[in-house]
Design a protein that fits this description.
Elements lengths: L2 H6 L5 H13 L9 E7 L7 H20 L4 E7 L15 H5 L19 H15 L5 E4 H6 L4 H9 L1 H8 L5 H6 L3 E3 L14 E3 L4 E5 L5 E5 L5 E3 L1 H12 L6 E2 L3 H13 L9 E2 L2 E2 L16 H7 L2 H9 L6 E2 L5 H14 L5 H4 L3 H5 L13 H11 L4 H11 L9 H18 L10 H16 L6 H14 L5 H13 L7 H8 L1 H12 L4 H4 L1
Parallel strand pairs: 1-2, 2-3, 9-10, 11-12
Antiparallel strand pairs: 4-8, 5-6, 6-7
């Protein structure tokens, strides 16, 4: 057994904990299908979103952890429930009147309102694949429509028909009286209109593999449950898919706990074993409310990637998946810097510690080696004090601080500069609020300017930081926190800021003294900016 596998078998990183539960479930025997199947689900009535990324990213982390501790081959299916009937027209699409004429039909039977694909479902499926490909996920796409029509689900659908009463006994107690009267796990597709019907089943023929229902004219229609002539209601469909595909692992959100439990019971009725499941917590908006696609609160994937890297989003998804977390713009800077911190530690860590480092899981065990000499927070404050949205201006300071760094030699740092400028422009600049120094603060600022002027020209960030501390100690501040807060509010126009030694080393000693002198002479930094 390799050292890495031995360490992984005892690692407390959550993907390895999940992977070990899957190993315990499977043992050393290769499944009859020849591989271990991971699955993620997608409802293509809307476009892929940040939750889609999170579920595929987290599932991939578990898959890679499993592959380290097991020799069994794996596959990941990204499953699209594109045979679902469209219940309402989305607000964010063109040609809404045209789509409204096809309500109730499977998404793959509705013309594409964007005019680029053979159906609305095909359009959104293409968006899903492009979305996943953008992040380099390794997966296989599965379409519900194709699976139903190709007969891939036929044998399990016959099992659903054979166990119809037992399945109804599980589902009906969870429904209201009105819904109980009309419920059937089978949703026949009307041969005349193509609409997915929610109608009571009036007869069943297990041997023939058919159900009968009454259409809108009152006529009895007999239809096969196979070959795409019917699809299943959501919870029965999920269970059927687990059995038909023999899914071994699928995670889901906290809001689906009742569905997981109910679908698990149906899965067992059909003779299957429900997959291993991780229940992850939901994201919260800035007010602590659950994020909802219909409300539009929270962040989109494009918004995150405007201000932070894909890797920083991967870190956000890695951390504490069972804990509810705010998903708003103000979490991005911390995630970017935490990612850089984890990345910088990785090369010097022992093997066991590398397996608990998030970058191992974000990068499938092979994180890049790219030293980044500056934090996002420092760059953000550099953009702030320079009041610039020009990358070249910031690189002028960076090149003086880190002579070997250039946009070409350090593309990760160059991307970071771009993210910092975007974040400064949209969130920091509108909120900047400078204040004038009080009498005691003026004396401390004068002392700081004189102290910086007296330092050797080659003084590094730590030496500068020490002197900033000493200046604060010499003056009448309640504590050093108050001294640094005053520096941030007076010099940067904000209540929080960077490590001053690092910032001054980057911005420049002379430039910092000049900034202090502007304040001491009464110049309005907000107007000057």
């Amino acid at each position: 057994m390799s050292e890495a596998r031995e360490l992984a078998l005892h690692s407390n990183a959550w993907p390895f904990v999940e992977a070990r539960s899957l190993v315990d479930r499977l043992g050393d025997q290769r499944p009859d299908k020849g591989y271990v199947l991971f699955e993620t689900g997608y409802g293509p009535s809307g476009l892929p979103h940040i939750g889609t990324f999170g579920e595929v990213a987290r599932t991939t982390m578990v898959r890679r952890a499993f592959e380290l501790i097991s020799d069994l081959p794996t596959r990941l299916f990204a499953f699209s429930d594109d045979m679902d009937g469209l219940r309402k027209v989305p607000d964010n699409i063109p040609n809404q009147d045209m789509v409204a004429e096809h309500l109730g039909k499977p998404l793959t039977a509705i013309p594409d309102p964007f005019g680029t694909h053979e159906s609305f479902g095909a359009h959104n499926n293409a968006r899903l694949r492009a979305f996943l490909d953008q992040f380099g996920f390794e997966y296989e796409f599965k379409s519900a429509t194709e699976c139903y029509r190709a007969g891939e689900f036929d044998q399990t659908l016959k099992q659903v028909l054979a166990h119809y009463d037992a399945i109804m006994d599980v589902i009906l107690p969870t429904l209201g009286a009105e819904r109980q009267a009309t419920y059937s796990p089978f949703l026949p597709v009307c041969p005349k209109t193509g609409v997915v019907l929610q109608v009571p089943v009036v007869a069943r023929d297990v041997d023939a593999g058919t159900i009968s229902y009454q259409d809108e004219t009152g006529a009895t229609v007999e239809t096969p449950v196979t070959g795409g002539h019917c699809k299943l209601q959501w919870k029965a469909d999920w269970a059927m898919r687990w059995v038909a595909l023999n899914v071994d692992y699928e995670m889901s959100g906290k809001d689906l706990i009742p569905s997981v439990q109910l679908s698990g019971r149906i899965c067992r009725i059909l003779g299957g074993t429900p997959p291993e499941n991780l229940t992850y917590e939901l994201f919260l908006d800035e007010q602590g409310q659950k994020i909802s696609k219909s409300k539009g609160n929270g962040l989109t994937i494009d918004e995150w990637l405007t201000y932070g890297s894909r890797e920083s989003l991967g870190l956000y998804m890695f951390q504490s998946p069972r804990k509810a977390k705010r998903l708003y713009f103000d979490v991005i800077p911390r995630q970017v810097d935490d990612y850089l911190s984890h990345l910088s530690k990785f090369p010097d860590q022992e093997s066991k510690d590398r397996l608990t480092n998030p970058v191992w899981h974000i990068h499938d065990g092979n994180p890049p080696v790219q030293p980044v000499p500056l934090s996002f927070n420092i760059l953000l404050n550099l953009a702030s004090v320079c009041n610039t949205e020009d990358k070249a201006v910031l690189w002028g300071f960076i090149s003086r601080y880190a002579a070997d760094a250039t946009p070409d030699s350090n593309p990760m740092l160059d991307e970071l500069v771009g993210y910092a400028i975007n974040y400064y422009r949209d969130f920091v600049k509108p909120e900047k609020n400078y204040r004038a120094p009080e009498a005691g603060e003026r004396a401390a600022l004068e002392d700081l300017a004189n102290t910086l002027n007296g330092l050797p020209a080659d003084s590094g960030a730590e030496a500068v930081q020490t002197e900033v501390y000493e200046v604060g100690k010499r003056h009448d501040f309640p504590d050093l926190r108050s001294w640094f807060k005053a520096l941030y509010e007076i010099l940067l126009g904000q209540s929080q800021g960077p490590r001053m030694g690092s910032f001054i080393a980057l911005y420049g000693r002379d430039e910092t003294v000049a900034l202090i002198n502007k304040v001491l002479t009464g110049e309005d930094l907000a107007a000057a900016g």
